[in-house]
């Protein structure tokens, strides 16, 4: 017997979040350009680019996906070869699954995103976390990688199969010394993966200059793309393993299950790429850093405390916000979210008052001033 399904809840659903000013680290670098919004409409039907595919996504000449994946993207990432993936986590897993064997060890920083750990667990690897410094800095020091590698050698009798660095980390926005870490890792004969989910598309980035054998990036976090979509960069040394093709389906690459981003995701990435390329120029990035530092100073003048690197070198920042937490003990834990929402400012998750993350990327000094004024107004309102 066929049962009637109630579809009243579905159909077009308006996004119920204010977006006049967006400070959400997950979204600031992923806000679509006008060209990408047009592409989303044009290419949103199913696997739209498959109309043009002869069996391999990276070989599609029209639209110019071939030129993007095989020419522009490797140059942009500073690597030999590149692919698009369904997200940075899929890129990390592809590397781990291709170059490691079950039971191998991977060393990664203590600030690593949870998806790095899950990717390693899915590949059935053992994980050694590199110790971070205590609060308030939470730094990842190169010498701690050497200690972690030595610990794995003592515990397992062999070197780790892979080392991973989060650059910057997604909690504090700290940027570790990737070059120094790369030297330590390579001196031990270990390949090096840099997770640049909050770097690639926001700031100058070059895999070879960092000493990375692999890099992963996020289109929906940092490349103004409709997600989920990611990018993967690979050196020629490891490309035969990571980009290996199926013996039964000879134009399908095994680690990507044949195809990855095939529709609006890849087409919005292509549409935004000219703007993304321009915004990662050093002078543009320096302006972003200056805005972030100014914003941090303004919030600290209100009694908040920025954790992590100081002076800060990234737009993502973590604040300890005891003045708002103290207010929440008298009001309620959602007051700050409501107050910011009423001012069309998005980015602080509901219920957070003791600490929170914010990103200043692309917001600009004028709008950041509005945010600072909003924090001041809220503190004054609840202090009376």
From TrEMBL:
Coiled-coil stretches: none
Catalytic activity field: O-phospho-L-seryl-tRNA(Cys) + hydrogen sulfide + H(+) = L-cysteinyl-tRNA(Cys) + phosphate
Entry keywords, A to Z: Protein biosynthesis, Pyridoxal phosphate, Transferase
Cofactor: pyridoxal 5'-phosphate
Any one biological process term the GO annotation gives: translation
InterPro entries: PyrdxlP-dep_Trfase (IPR015424), PyrdxlP-dep_Trfase_major (IPR015421), PyrdxlP-dep_Trfase_small (IPR015422), Sep_Cys-tRNA_synth_arc (IPR013375), SepSecS/SepCysS (IPR008829)
Residues that bind pyridoxal 5'-phosphate: 88-89, 195, 218-220
N6-(pyridoxal phosphate)lysine found at: 221
Pfam families: SepSecS
GO molecular function: Sep-tRNA:Cys-tRNA synthase activity
Documented EC number(s): 2.5.1.73
Family annotation (PANTHER family): CYSTEINE DESULFURASE, O-PHOSPHO-L-SERYL-TRNA:CYS-TRNA SYNTHASE
Family: Belongs to the SepCysS family.
Subunit structure: Homodimer. Interacts with SepRS.
Its job: Converts O-phospho-L-seryl-tRNA(Cys) (Sep-tRNA(Cys)) to L-cysteinyl-tRNA(Cys) (Cys-tRNA(Cys)).
The name this protein goes by in its record: O-phospho-L-seryl-tRNA:Cys-tRNA synthase
Lineage: Archaea, Methanobacteriati, Methanobacteriota, Stenosarchaea group, Methanomicrobia
């Amino acid at each position: 017997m066929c049962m009637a399904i109630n579809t009243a809840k579905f159909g077009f659903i308006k996004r119920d979040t204010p977006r006049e000013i967006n400070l959400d680290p997950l979204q600031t670098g992923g806000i679509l350009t006008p060209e990408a919004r047009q592409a989303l409409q044009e290419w949103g039907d199913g696997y739209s680019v498959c109309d043009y595919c002869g069996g391999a996504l990276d070989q599609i000449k029209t639209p110019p996906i071939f030129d993007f994946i095989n020419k522009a993207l490797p140059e942009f990432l500073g690597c030999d070869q590149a692919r698009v993936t369904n997200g940075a986590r899929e890129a990390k897993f592809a590397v781990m699954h291709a170059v490691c064997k079950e039971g191998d060890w991977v060393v990664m920083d203590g600030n690593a995103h949870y998806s790095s750990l899950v990717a390693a667990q899915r590949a059935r690897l053992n994980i050694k976390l590199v110790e971070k410094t205590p609060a308030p800095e939470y730094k990842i020091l190169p010498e701690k990688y050497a200690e972690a590698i030595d610990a794995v050698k003592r515990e397992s009798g062999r070197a780790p199969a892979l080392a991973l660095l989060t650059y910057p980390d997604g909690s504090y926005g700290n940027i570790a010394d990737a070059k120094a870490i790369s030297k330590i890792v390579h001196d031990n004969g270990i390949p090096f993966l840099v997770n640049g989910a909050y770097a690639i598309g926001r700031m100058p980035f070059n895999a070879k200059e960092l000493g990375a054998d692999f890099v992963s990036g996020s289109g929906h976090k940092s490349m103004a793309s409709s997600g989920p979509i990611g990018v993967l960069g690979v050196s020629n040394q490891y490309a035969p393993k990571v980009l290996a093709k199926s013996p039964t389906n000879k134009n399908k690459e095994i680690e990507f299950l044949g195809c990855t981003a095939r529709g609006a995701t890849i087409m919005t990435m292509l549409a935004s790429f000219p703007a993304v390329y321009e915004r990662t120029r050093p002078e543009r990035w320096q302006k972003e850093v200056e805005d972030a530092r100014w914003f941090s100073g303004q919030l600290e003048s209100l009694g908040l405390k920025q954790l992590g690197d100081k002076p800060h070198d990234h737009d993502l920042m973590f604040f300890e916000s005891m003045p708002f937490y103290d207010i929440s003990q008298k009001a309620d834990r959602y007051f700050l979210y409501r107050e910011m929402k009423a001012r069309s400012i998005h980015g602080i998750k509901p219920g957070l008052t003791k600490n929170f993350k914010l990103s200043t990327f692309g917001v600009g000094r004028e709008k950041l001033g509005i945010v600072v004024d909003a924090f001041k107004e809220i503190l004054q309102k609840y202090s009376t």
